[in-house]
Specification:
nine-stranded mixed beta sheet, 37% helix, alpha/beta
């Protein structure tokens, strides 16, 4: 089985293999490696070596009795990268996975060829940013069923089968009804730290995203020099799932020359 032993965990991953440029996918808090089913065939056909994994506390990855818990997501990723002997690669991430990807790209800038971050608040701890975030994400939103919070209304209304599959993956992501304690960042995420980003970065927002509204993501993106911005108008927090054709085209066009 495709596991790698890391400090405090056995990490489940899948790797399409080959000598192509690697692209590592980081799932949301509502997903697992299975969430990328609409991306992997397209990215593989485009010539990428695709690597997915279940982050610590999610899906098939297994905690161990030894090692620090809950650890750091960026260091878990780095352990996988070292195990696979990857010199450089792309990171493709959504939502909470985007927080890990940003932290990794800022910590190990020489390893990341390019970064795609979609529908993510980035883990930023600036008081101004948090104030706006709290206004845009009042507690009433958190009380909604997860599919109403994360899947846009257009998709829910027109694709009930796809919505049900998204819910099934979300349910399977939990280990004993929980994902465990939140992992720490390698360093606090600040505007100043984002300003040191030298990795080519694409930010994708969803026009109907309740959890990472475009206005909030623009605040984050404005501190990443030279970033590219894209938006999918009717998509919610799960834009990669709701409109994969548009999402994949945006990501692949950006990665094509990198």
């Amino acid at each position: 089985m495709p596991y790698v032993d890391l400090p405090g965990m056995r990490l489940w991953f899948e790797d399409s293999g080959g000598n192509h440029i690697p692209a590592i996918f980081l799932h949301a808090a509502s997903g697992t490696f299975e969430s990328w089913v609409h991306q992997l065939p397209t990215f593989t056909q485009a010539g990428f070596r695709c690597i997915t994994y279940d982050r610590r506390g999610w899906g098939r990855s297994q905690p161990l009795e030894t090692g620090d818990q809950p650890g750091r997501g960026s260091l878990d990723l780095h352990g996988l990268v070292d195990y696979l002997a990857l010199d450089s690669f792309h990171l493709v991430a959504t939502a909470a996975g985007g927080i890990v990807a940003l932290d990794y790209a800022l910590t190990f800038q020489d390893r990341v060829r390019a970064l795609v971050v979609a529908n993510s608040i980035g883990g930023i701890q600036e008081p101004e940013y948090l104030e706006v975030q709290h206004r845009l994400r009042p507690f009433q939103i958190q009380d909604l069923p997860i599919e109403l919070r994360e899947v846009g209304p257009s998709y829910r209304g027109t694709n009930p089968e796809g919505t049900q599959r998204w819910v099934e993956i979300e349910r399977s992501s939990r280990q004993g009804d929980t994902h465990g304690p939140a992992q720490l960042l390698h360093n606090p995420m600040t505007y100043a730290r984002l300003g040191t980003m030298c990795v080519p970065t694409l930010i994708i927002s969803g026009g109907a995203d309740l959890l990472s509204p475009p206005a909030l993501m623009r605040m984050m993106a404005s501190h990443i020099s030279g970033h590219q911005w894209a938006s999918i108008p009717e998509a919610g927090h799960a834009a990669f799932w709701e409109d994969p054709d548009t999402w994949n085209r945006l990501a692949l066009d950006f990665l094509a020359d990198k």
